[in-house]
Specification:
10-stranded antiparallel beta sheet; two-stranded antiparallel sheet
Length: 160
């Protein structure tokens, strides 16, 4: 299952004005963390995970909506320490993401995991591990939209 054109466009339209600029040495991008479990996007992504990975998997804590405009980037990093700073008792998880627009709408902006570019396909689920380094190269033209989220496998393991 992939997210439809209508679903991708609805996400961009609903969150366009909620995004907050994040500008640090390590990144420049706009994002919004949707943490309301009753929201349309939270339910959509939780179901998307279950359909693609199985009923034992679920969305954990939030969906992050990301927008990268010309000049925006996210340097190579891991999410483990950041997520532990938000909640030190997070259950075991890994990460998922979805690209929300077509590749011809921007240049640059390649998403990479462990120094390898991830094949770009709008609407498709991609995953990576808790400690795998990843980032987004600088966008040189246009705008890149994506989602990033935590996925739980339902097992009762705590990250220490």
């Amino acid at each position: 299952m992939i997210l439809s054109e209508d679903e991708c466009n609805k996400i961009k339209k609903l969150y366009k004005y909620k995004l907050l600029l994040q500008k640090k040495e390590s990144r420049k991008q706009r994002n919004y963390h949707e943490m309301d479990e009753s929201s349309w996007i939270y339910k959509l992504i939780d179901n998307f995970i279950k359909v693609n990975l199985g009923e034992d998997y679920s969305l954990l804590q939030r969906v992050t909506i990301l927008r990268y405009d010309k000049g925006d980037y996210f340097k190579k990093h891991t999410d483990g320490n950041y997520n532990q700073s938000i909640s030190e008792n997070l259950p075991y998880h890994f990460y998922g993401g979805v690209e929300l627009n077509e590749k011809d709408e921007f240049d640059g902006g390649e998403f990479f995991v462990s120094d390898e570019n991830v094949d770009y396909k709008k609407g498709r689920l991609f995953t990576h591990g808790f400690e795998e380094s990843h980032g987004v190269k600088e966008v040189t033209r246009g705008t890149r939209w994506s989602l990033h989220f935590l996925i739980s496998d339902g097992k009762e393991k705590t990250i220490i």
